[in-house]
Amino acid sequence: KAEPTRRAEIRRRFKDAIQRLERAGLLDPRAKKGRQALLSTAAPGESGWENVSKRYFAAQIPCPFLEAESCGIYADRPLVCREYNAVTPAAWCSELSSRVETAPRPARMSEVLAEAANAIAGTNHPCVPLTLSLEWSEAHGKTLAGSRDGEAMFWALLDHMETEGPPSEA
Fold first, then answer.
1. Spatial separation of the C-alpha atoms in residues 139 and 143, rounded to whole Å
2. 3-class DSSP state for residue 136?
């Protein structure tokens, strides 16, 4: 567990990231806390995902866990970070380019876990961008709180892994 000073610094970085998302037009600053998605301004023929990805990348908002150009929680890093299995040189990650390649994965586990959690808790929450996770959990986290049967959770996870299948190539 992080010491109080470090925890406060990380929370400040999350707040700063959200303010930068608002200034970049990726979040509505008037929306109530607990936002779960970034705003798209996609033009005809452009996907919302592609539009948000480009604008987020252009804003150059660092991960709130980034410290001295390294992951400050590497051993405990979030699953969504672990899903980026880049196999090309790290220097290429500084550009939004199709030459950055990742190792294939059978499923996007962050999405599978979100679907399984929703099935178990009877909710319908989407995956949330990491920069919104603290705000979102403060507003909605109680809907997922509580004890659940471990075996039921295991089978729900497997069921959702089967239905996810391999991610489509973009």
1. 9
2. helix
Token pair 């986290």 is at which residue?
141
Spatial separation of the C-alpha atoms in residues 111 and 166, rounded to whole Å: 12
Distance (Å, rounded) from C-alpha 21 to C-alpha 41?
Answer: 14
Distance in angstroms (rounded) separating the CA atoms of residues 161 and 111: 9
Token couple for 56: 């987020």
Q: What is the DSSP letter of 97?
A: -
Quick: pLDDT tens for 115-164.
888 888 888 887 888 899 999 999 988 887 888 888 988 888 888 887 65
Please report the sign of the dihedral spanned by the C-alpha atoms of residue 155, residue 103, residue 169, residue 46: positive
What's the whole-model pTM score?
0.78
Tokens 């929370």, residue?
A: 11
E strand map for the chain:
66-67, 70-71
Burial 7-18 (b: 16+ CB within 10 A, else e): eeebeebbeebb
Cβ of 43: how many Cβ atoms within 10 Å? 8
163 three-class SS = helix
Distance CA 151, CA 9 (A): 38
Helix (H, G, I), strand (E, B) or coil at 92: helix
Residue 116: other Cβ atoms inside 10 A: 21
For residue 157, list its beta bridge partners: none
